[in-house]
Malate synthase G (Novosphingobium decolorationis), 705 residues
Amino acid sequence: MTKRIERCGLRVDAALAQFIENEVLPPIGQDADAFWSGFAALVGEYAPRNRALLQTREDLQARIDAWHGERAGQPLDAQAYEAFLREIGYLVPEPGDFTIATKNVDPEIATMAGPQLVVPVLNARFLLNAANARRGSLYDAFYGTDALDAPPAQGPGYDPQRGSAVIAAGRDFLDRAIPLAHGSWADLSDVAERELADETQYLGETEKGLVFTNNGLTIELVFDPQSPVGQGDRMGLSDIVLEAALTTIVDLEDSVAAVDAEDKIAAYANWLGVIRGDLSDTFEKGGKTQTRTLAPDTQMVTREGERTALPGRSLLFVRNVGHLMTNPAVLLPDGGEIPEGILDAVVTSAISTQDVKGLTRYGNSRQGSIYIVKPKMHGPEECAFTDDLFNAVEDLLGLDRHTIKVGVMDEERRTSANLAACIAAVKERVVFINTGFLDRTGDEIHTSMRAGPMIRKADIKGSTWIAAYETRNVAIGLKHGLSGIAQIGKGMWAAPDRMHDMLAQKIGHPRTGANTAWVPSPTAATLHAMHYHQVDVFGLREEIAQEAIPGLDQLLQIPLANGANWSPEEIREELDNNAQGLLGYVVRWIDQGVGCSKVPDINDVGLMEDRATLRISSQHMANWLLHGVCTREQVLDSLQRMAAKVDAQNAGDPLYEPMDGNWERSLAFQAACDLVFKGVEQPSGYTEPLLHAWRLKKKSLVLAA
């Protein structure tokens, strides 16, 4: 039974109250009584507004469902459809000319271009790895992945043949990023003999080597002739260290399974630790005990003889929960659960206030800002609500107006279609917009659920709407002044073991004018950083800004499978693909509380999965079931056969609980079935309500045992 204490009419989990009162408030000089009084007043004002916004979502969806239902079997009339969306307020008028006015933004966001990591806050080791991914070894990234067209390393120790291939690839990179006036880096035997084509690229010296810059990113050449690598190098060069993950999103949302106060305290404690600078994690690796902490800055003497430092850590955002979910960590006076996004806004900002006040070991924002990414907002009204909420949080914590910055994730259809108005609603605090295939596709399917059956999932990536979505996001961002002030981002590379393919394909992201894109690991961040040395993002933007913004007619094209006549084999293949990915993710979420992990797909390729991928799979199967493309029996057959495959893929996990044959006992399997068979009725097609309910049931059973 959860122990609760009353705080100004709120019934707060006792451990959460203790955490806030003992760890969060004292360093920032907040009186506990004043805090709870202000917090209760804030919740009293904003919880009803939050509920009203969710009701608006439901009302709009009901009207869209009815409109499609009345026209079942008819071709979609695009003009009539757009007029209808305007009539019901789903589409709002364009806001006219405006430019964002965000102040005090760190250069990693405003004026630099480079990779971005997203990391689950509940995993301290991963969180530290991500925070420390600001600087990464290019040699390690080449040596330990498939990035190179060369045989993999042989044996447990250093493989000189593989090392030679890495050294050659490193020299090739240097020739492109820091070209010499004459010849190649491969011809140099003494770095002192170098003559750069542009001598301004040389910045200075560190204890270990020399630092250069290209496209705003640093490159450190590390020299150690006694090392295994340096011994085989003409210059004694032992590593090339790239500035990599400029920013990291510390995630409390899609990549975590946080369903109660216990989970939220663990999440907030890790955020506090990484902000305060004292987070550490001890673990076993290779038979040895290791302890990981935050990396310090790297000291440098500039070519002018001045002492400075290269940042050792990624600049951190924190991704709060969206507007939909509530959490039992705090109960309202009427007995209802607190909207989780409101709880996150207050607690994560209170923690970050230690950084604003300069009370942390390393510091995060040098501009005194707090960076919050806000996901799953539906349209400008919800963005305006977030702006008001952040105003109230600033007042509660005694922060200057617009200290809290916001990242607007363009991942819901109503936001995509009204993006300019969404940006206008937060124009004095916006620092980030992005695109992402996953949640955006889930919402595309759910919004148009009753319009007809959708094309196959893989084909959606090539559909008209998503091309318009990707292009519009950048173009609208540039039109309204984000360049030089805010990030324009792109989505995730989901296959962490396929770095060769990533190097070949992900250069497309900076070529769109986006100054950041998501990668699945620190190693991937180091490799993706090479793309920002190849592409001068800010130099491209003037040209890109001259291009026409795709119209709404393209964005609103629904990916319907008009006239498709799939064979039974094709239907089974699609169902199996969806079912396997769905089960592989859900079984870890429900049984082990793992919100993001590398999950083998149906072809045993490891892909990073989170709730966004689950939303697509469950909604796609629900859509086909609704329109008779498949039957309930076919879906259940796929789920049961794929459960056996997922069991086999997890056979080496001692904590894994098999699903095959345990249909009534496996809560994970039952949750997976609910996600499909109840998918049509889920709010916005989100998976969280069902996942949370089944996870809470699982936790209660474990506790009872």
